[in-house]
Amino acid sequence: MKADHQLAHASFTIYQDVESPEFWTRYFGVQPDTQRVKGQFRITPSGRVSKFPARTGVWGIGSREHVQSDLLAPHLHYLVERLALPRSDLPELLKRTGAHMRFFCFWDNEAGDRVPDVPDDIRAMMESMGGTVEIDEYR
Predict the structure, then answer these.
(1) Read out DSSP for the chain?
(2) What are the pLDDT digits (tens) for 65-99?
(3) What pLDDT, on a 0 to 100 scale, did the predictor assign at position 4?
(4) pLDDT tens for residues 1-14?
(5) Distances from the Cα of 48 to the Cαs of 26, 44, 45, 54, in angstroms?
(6) Which of 71, 75, 133, 136 has the most other CB atoms within 10 Å of its CB?
C-alpha cells in the first residue's frame, strides 16, 4: 500500500549572518522557499509573527513540491540541477561569509526496511565544496 505522503524529500540550506538572503537569491538565481535574517522576526506558516527573532541567517530551497519520489536521489539531483552545483567559487564564498551549507534529507522508514539512497557523487561534491549531507530518519 502506498503512503499518502512522500517517504523522502530534501532541502538545500545556507546558514550565515554576513550576507542578506537577497545575496544568495542573486547568486543562485533561484527564489528561496525559506529565508531569515538574523535578529528579525518572521511570519510563521500559520501567518503569525514569530515570538523570537531569528538566531541566524538562513536561505534555502526544497524539493518536496517539485519532485514526486520516495527515493532521495531524484530530490538531490533536482537540487543540484536547480542550483547549478558544483560551483567553483562557492567554497571561498562560504569561507568569506562564515557560512555552513547542507543538504538535509527527510527519510521516512517506519517499516525499518528502507536504506537512504544518497548518491556517492553528490555526497563527494558537497564535501568538496565544504558542505554536508544530513539524513533525518523517521521510524
Answers:
(1) ---SS-SEEEEEEEE-SSS-HHHHHHHHT---SEEE-TT---B-TTSPBPSS--SS-EEEEESTTT---SSHHHHHHHHHHHHT---TTHHHHHHHHT-EEEEEEEEE-TTS-------HHHHHHHHHHT-EEEEEEE-
(2) 999 999 999 999 999 999 999 999 999 999 999 99
(3) 57
(4) 344 588 999 999 99
(5) 28, 5, 7, 14
(6) 75
Per DSSP, what are the bridge partners of residue 109?
none
Cell for 94? Answer: 562560504
pLDDT tens per residue across span 91-127 = 999 999 999 999 999 999 888 888 999 999 999 999 9
Distances (CA, A) of 86 to 33, 65, 89: 20, 23, 9
What pLDDT does 9 receive? 96
Q: Which three cell numbers stand for residue 67?
A: 519532485
Q: Strand 100-108 to strand 8-15: parallel, antiparallel, or no bridges (unpaired)?
A: antiparallel
